[in-house]
Design a protein that fits this description.
The chain starts with a helix and ends in an 8-residue tail after the last helix. Helix 1 packs across helix 3, helix 2 (47-55) packs across helix 3 and helix 6 (136-154) packs across helix 16. It is of the alpha/beta class. The protein has helices spanning 2-18, 47-55, 59-68, 93-97, 99-106, 136-154, 170-186, 201-214, 222-226, 238-279, 290-295, 298-308, 343-356, 371-383, 420-427, 429-438, 449-454, 460-476, 487-492, 500-522, 526-545, 553-577; strands spanning 32-34, 43-45, 76-82, 86-91, 120-124, 158-165, 286-289, 312-315, 318-321, 332-335, 361-367, 391-396, 399-403, 406-407, 445-448. It is built from 22 helices and 15 strands. It is globular, with a radius of gyration of 30 Å. It has a five-stranded parallel β-sheet with strand order 7-6-5-11-12, sandwiched between helices. Among the domains are: 2-91, 2-Layer Sandwich (Gyrase A, domain 2); 170-279, no CATH class; 459-577, Orthogonal Bundle (Isoleucyl-tRNA Synthetase, Domain 1). It binds one RNA strand of 75 nucleotides through helix 2, helix 7, strand 9, strand 10 and helix 13.
RNA sequence: CCCCUCGUAGUUCAAUGGAUAGAAUAGGGCCCUCCUAAGGCUUAGAUGUAGGUUCGAUUCCUACCGAGGGGACCA
């Protein structure tokens, strides 16, 4: 419809140029937008305002000229000039109602579009360290990434969803050591738990499972383990203390048994995260192991690539990437003087790997605490001869948790956090998903657990689901009143849908494909959430004002057809957000 | 000190540079002999401060104030 109006305006301007009223070289940038206020018609263009300067006339005069020369179109019932020079278009009821044909024909495909043009996009998100269960802080990134993936798919992109498993770093060794100490305790070998170890109950659970499986095979005496360890905090250095325990574990257990221990922690937590996310309706196509990078020499290869391009230098025994040449604040170490590559080096290799897999666009969803990495990662990509523009980093601001007035402190290490699982149990999957994804990612958000738990009516997701369920119930209970719904008859009688509420609802339904395209291009699923809220509101208003189960068969069929189309769009939108569309509530 | 994000009704959030800044909740007042009142109607209420860019700024730029997060040969 927008396209039609644009072309009408184009034709009018062309006519005016031919008649000499406008200069032939006048360039018109024709924008047509949906009006916010129905008094301004259905579509509006500001073209006259933008032409005012070039044409040296006042905007209202130009608008009048354009209106006078618009070709006739049955879809447009009326045009008006308003305000400073807007041209408002009123769309006929007939043209509006045709959207119901599309919706019912396309079903769950309605709203899909091809703005993605089959481009391959990878979305990497969550990627939390597998050192403990996900907490509510991860929930936002999970909800956003999953919804974005669905949205981009609907918009015609080929999407791969990936989780980067940080299974290579020191934190994983700390986890292994933590599991070991809990395991030893089960064997009666107790020693003080390191202040820097992972203290959560889940570590004990992993130890218990491990103990059940391997018996005493990993046992060493507490005296042996704790002999000559550097002091823990507060007297000593907690980092040196935990590192010494890790070294001790590797010495005493040997490589094979240490790997067994390590894998027990990693596998258990990764599987748990996988289940946790699946229950949150978040699934991945690929779980990418950081360790696979070093096993396949990809890190060395990435560093070599930077070296070949002359962006690496040696200083103080370490290898540095000259990222300042690409706008970074300081140069970054990729290989330490002890020969170990840094986390950043893994990141470079990982991103090189991603681009080598042939994605047109690579999207990283990162927590706001990672913003400092954007510049350096993009610098590395550029230095390796890749187009850094193809890496899109979306930062997700933290959700600040409240319990009523009180702020909930969050810390993984101390084990004092609200897990995502607890949130789901308390608030519910649908409400949590919707709550997270209703805000745009840049917005800092307050998450009040008390509010979310205590009274679920405060959450608009139920309002939308309720609209869906209402329609389902109406259709399901027709038989009780000896009534039928004939969709073909309904579509043949769409001209009967002339109430304001009906026209508003149809117009809202017609907007859905635009919302999908717009939300996808902006990477903003929250647009869909807000749209659904509005759509549900339109339906509730309609429902309260007019009856659908009525004796007049023609009108009944038409109204039920409209309701059914509304149900379809609500279901399609909720599906994108990973929220259920219940048939009754 | 430097960098990033954000400041909009009492509260939680919207608003491709456009017309009278929208919802939801909380507060006033109404609507179930009627398809689900988890609903509807109605009323009241907001752009942190100061400049700039222009026909027009919540939106773009600068400074300041306030909130959150970064600034390792840690991951």
């Amino acid at each position: 419809m927008k396209q039609l109006v644009v072309s009408l305006i184009e034709q009018s301007i062309a006519t005016l140029k031919q008649s000499g009223a406008f200069d032939t070289d006048l360039q018109a940038n024709i924008q047509v937008e949906n009006t916010r206020d129905k008094q301004h018609g259905d579509l509006a263009s500001n073209v006259a305002l933008t032409l005012a300067k070039a044409a040296r006339r006042n905007p209202r005069e130009i608008a009048q000229m354009i209106c006078d020369h618009l070709p006739a179109a049955t879809e447009v019932s009326k045009t008006e000039i308003a305000g400073p020079g807007f041209i408002n278009f009123f769309i006929s009821q007939d043209a509006t109602a045709t959207v119901l044909n599309s919706i019912l024909e396309l079903g769950d495909q309605y709203g899909q579009c091809q703005v993605g043009a089959d481009q391959h996009v990878q979305i990497e998100f969550v990627s939390a360290n597998p050192t403990g269960p996900l907490h509510v802080g991860h929930g936002r990134g999970a909800a956003y990434g999953a919804s974005l993936g669905n949205l981009l798919s609907a918009a015609g992109y080929k999407v791969q969803r990936e989780y980067y498993v940080n299974d290579a770093g020191r934190q994983m060794n700390i986890l292994a050591a933590s599991v070991w100490l809990r395991y030893l305790a089960l064997e009666g070998e107790t020693m003080p738990f390191p202040s820097n170890g992972y203290q959560g109950e889940y570590v004990k659970d992993i130890a218990t499972a491990l103990h059940k499986r391997v018996g005493s095979n990993l046992k060493h005496s507490a005296a042996e383990v704790s002999k000559d360890l550097p002091a823990d905090a507060p007297e000593g250095d907690k980092e040196a203390h935990i590192d010494a325990i890790i070294d001790r574990a590797q010495q005493l257990l040997g490589d094979e048994n240490y790997q067994l221990l390590f894998a027990a922690g990693l596998d258990s937590i990764r599987d748990d995260i996988k289940d946790d996310l699946a229950d949150f309706n978040v699934t991945f196509d690929n779980w990418f192991s950081e360790r696979s990078l070093s096993q396949e020499d990809q890190i060395e290869r990435a560093i070599k690539k930077l070296q070949d391009n002359d962006h690496i230098y040696e200083q103080d025994g370490a290898l540095w990437f000259r990222s300042t040449a690409f706008g970074d604040d300081k140069d970054r170490v990729v290989k330490r003087d002890n020969g170990q590559t840094t986390y950043f080096a893994s990141d470079i290799a990982y991103h090189l790997n991603k681009f080598e897999r042939g994605f047109d666009t690579v999207i990283n969803i990162w927590g706001a605490d990672h913003h400092g990495y954007i510049t350096r990662v993009k610098a590395a990509l550029t230095a390796m001869g890749l187009d850094a523009e193809r890496l899109v980093v979306k930062l997700v601001q933290f959700a600040i948790l409240y319990r009523g007035e009180e702020r909930v402190p969050m810390s993984t290490r101390s084990g004092s956090f609200v897990t995502l699982r607890e949130l789901r149990d308390e608030v519910g999957k649908d409400a949590s998903r919707f709550f997270y994804v209703t805000r745009k990612t840049e917005q800092h958000m307050d998450f009040d657990l008390e509010l979310a738990k205590s009274d679920s009516k405060d959450n608009p997701v139920y309002y939308i689901q309720y609209a869906h369920a209402r329609i389902c119930t109406i259709l399901a209970k027709l038989a009780v009143e000896d009534m039928t719904w004939d969709q073909t008859q309904g579509l043949a009688n769409l001209q009967l849908l002339s109430e304001t509420a009906e026209i508003d609802l149809m117009q809202q339904l017609a907007l859905y494909p635009e919302v999908i395209a717009s939300a996808a291009l902006a990477y903003e699923p929250h647009q869909v959430a807000h749209y659904l809220r509005d759509l549900a509101g339109n339906f509730h208003t309609y429902y309260n004002a007019h009856r659908m189960k009525i004796d007049d068969a023609a009108l009944r069929n038409a109204r039920l057809t409209l309701s059914s189309a509304t149900r379809q769009v609500l279901a399609n939108g909720l599906q994108l957000l990973g929220v259920a569309a219940p048939e009754r509530m």
